[in-house]
Design brief:
globular, single chain, 4-stranded antiparallel sheet, mainly beta
Amino acid sequence: MYDIPKGKKVRQITKHGSSTSVIKLAWSISERYVASGDDSGRVLVRRLDPPSSSKGEWAIFKLIDRRIDEAIEQLLFSTRDGLLLIAGRTTAYVMNVKTKAELCKAGHSDQRDGLWINRPTSPGLLVNVDAVNARQYLWNTLLPQYSSSGPSLQDLRIAESLSKVQQAICVRERWLVLEVLSPNPNYAGSQRRQIELLDLNKLQSANELKRNIIEGLALHVRCLIGCFQDQVVFLDHQFWLCTWAIESVYSKHKRHFFLPKDWLSPTDLRLITLNAQGTLMCPRNGEVAIVRSGLKH
């Protein structure tokens, strides 16, 4: 854990085995819970208590130590707190972090190509989005929102596609901006990027939701970072941090500041984090570079 104003390490939250690598992290919206997953399928969950007048430092409490029999593809806390989704390659689990018990689990098709997100206006729902479909499910059962017409998670089969949803960003609790990668037929071994826009207000589990492909924007995007003041934040190919105001047809974006190339590696790019105040955090060689107020100019 690092202190943002000073950029100094505060304390260690958890530790996995020396022979494993941590590949997934999730921090609850309330900032009370942190989950970490390693490449052996082990998931650790900790509760965090912030400093108070009676104690001067963060307190860490062990909650869950769970191992699944496949690769961990995603960790996600529910909006209301208390529930954690562990998405493996073929099975999804929901854990109650307060009782430390498994609430439910369900088999699903290969999760490597999709993502789970919270439904912003409905805390009891989460959305599974992949390169073809977007469907809503109930947090406490992993059953479809509309059980009479929608497919169950066990029956869900993603249409054959080589595309993958790399990043999903929610804007104004309505728009879902997707970064979709697919093989580039013109260059063997390379990928082609596409930016797609989904209107969550029109999402129905029984029907496929038409996506709006934002032509032209993908040419400037190296990777999506997050959202700030209802604008999409991304890093361009020259490592400038940019913002784009959502529009059905791309017209322009704005450059704000650039990151030195020696800060970044392909792995570091996906670890860059932006908080609600527009502060950018970029890990580098075991340290965290912090850029404040850069998006306000």
